[in-house]
Amino acid sequence: MPGLLRRACTGLLAAGLTGACTAGDNQTARDSTAAGTSLDSTAPRVAAAPVQPGDWITYNGSLSGERYSPLTQITPANVAQLKLVCAFDAPDTVSLQSGIVAVGGTLYFTAFNNTYAVDGTTCQQKWKHTRAEPPTYLKVSRGVGYSDGRLFRGTGDAHVLGLDAATGRQLWDVSIGNPKIGESVPMSPIASNGLVYVGNAGGDNFDVRGRIYALDAATGRVVWEFHAIPDSGAVRATWGKASAENPPAGAATWTSYALDDAKGILYVGTGNPAPDFVEAFHPGLNLYANAVLALDAKTGRLLAYVQPVRNDFHDWDVSAPPALITTAGGRSLVAQAAKDGNVYGIERSAVAPEAVTPDTAALAIRYKALVATRENAETPLTSDRETRFCPGTQGGVEWNGPTYDQKHGYLVVNAIDWCTSVKLQRLDTLKGAPGQSWSGMDDPKMAFGRQDPISKWRGWITAVDAENGAIRWRVRTPKPMVAGITSTAGGVVFTGDLDGNVLALDAGTGKELWRNPTSKAIGGGVISYEAGGKQYVAAAAGLNSAIWPVHGGTARIVVYALP
Questions:
Q1: Phi, psi for residue 19 in degrees, rounded to 5
Q2: What is the CATH number of domain 4-561?
Q3: CA dihedral defined by 292, 298, 301, 306, rounded to 10 degrees?
Q4: What is the pLDDT of residues 230-289, one digit of tens each?
């Protein structure tokens, strides 16, 4: 059934009374259902309109990932006048962490195995694509990437799809992983110059290693593949005690990437080594886990790398998408947030596309700014007792990284305080098996630790000076902050919270200027885009999770604008 179109006809929706303004089923929407094996890449496509400055073409807005909108109609002076324009309700009850892509006034998002196109000014469904697949434990898809009239997305069974953006018709479907061993593709791909960049998740499972791919945008053919844990050589030797019973694992990717399109350099943040909590099973540098990689976008050749988190035994992925920024002072940086609670400012000006061998000095950490609480981080984990540490395995910065507020020169980021207690399984009894989590926790029902009660969790919104890492303002929130966050040229920062509020803050001070309830926990994208010469704000609400104890109900996209 198509999603329900709800219009803001009485103002009651804006007050959170969602049942008061239902327009009924949208019978004009198209459904495109695919079994997952059809190929239609040769069929004619509608010519793609040029991307406009007010479009939001990736999970993080631009290919460089700054999560910054150049739009200026909404300002601190008038943001309190924002009104709900419309809302689109989908029937899916999933862990809605999808980013929202906006192109030419159309919004695109995913709800696990469904992909939707919705009019960005009326919330009328344009089309829906469904691909049948078995449900995964997390039921997560983080959305689509857009390029040249095509959309690209991953699946829970480790496939990547190409769709026609105008019609939702499936163009191709290729497999890049093995779901039987726990591999999936929840990340939002990015695409440019005929290539789609994507990778596999699942690095917390036994014998799963991260791989990064470039696929041909027209056919899905693999153009190149980079192994984040090489199969042999000096880098493989950084995994001490590797064996058939203890294979190197981890370094997977599960959010999104960033691209320096002018230089042709792809930037990727990688996940933790596994078993997550047992450093004794993987002594050494564990390259290229917990790293930021610079790859030649055309060939996949490694140009440079840096490892912000070393000797990890806390499941502290360098997981949030990187943002490629140039500061007012002229510094070219990778702004990289991680689950260890830090935002890293990494110099990238020396990364050279012509590098023949990886340059270990070209990516240099200039500062790190702590944006979450850090406690007991150096205490070893043991099999004798529980050890509590912060950030926990669901703490720090998760699947949404910082926005770069160009007006003030601030990196503004959401973060989580939620601590974890871990007791190791006896190491002489620790055995892995394909398809099973590989963490080292003594209780398999809590493979990634025992989380603090939610009475102790909280969140932060923090502005970090992009030049030097100094904290310029901080806002403490009663619950973790996991939603997308976007700054605008108008001087406003938009985000959402787990209580279901869409929020607007003054980018210069952090002062809250406006909020609107959706009644659904927000863990997805919050963006700003232009349609018909007007600036809009949209948010993806409806987070339900086996990990996060919130119940957001069915998926909803809400759209706001000035009167």
A1: -85, 0
A2: 2.140.10.10
A3: -10
A4: 999 999 999 999 999 999 999 999 999 999 999 999 999 999 999 999 999 999 999 999
